[in-house]
Amino acid sequence: xxxxxxxGFLTVLAPGATITTGAxxxxxxxxxxxxxxxxxxIRVAARNECYVRLGTAGVVATATDLLIQPADSAILAVPxxxxxxxxxxxxxxxxxxxxxxxxx
Length: 104
Hints:
single chain, Jelly Rolls, 4-stranded antiparallel beta sheet, 0% helix
């Protein structure tokens, strides 16, 4: 069965991670949920316009990837085998926050 997020409250119990965006792609390992395992879903929020891509070690984000608008967020499913998220700035540098979601 596919992973589906159908809205509702979010629970965040484990520390997240951040990426400082710039003109070059930067990446970070997707943070584990409180049980020590990779989460099924993550919430990605951006201070400034940025583009993100999920992948494995060495993943590189480009300006054609998923756009996260300034002060907005997206909930992303984390497919099996995916370990890393990369981000690159849009028009200005900023910070991207990635947190594991517990209750979905």
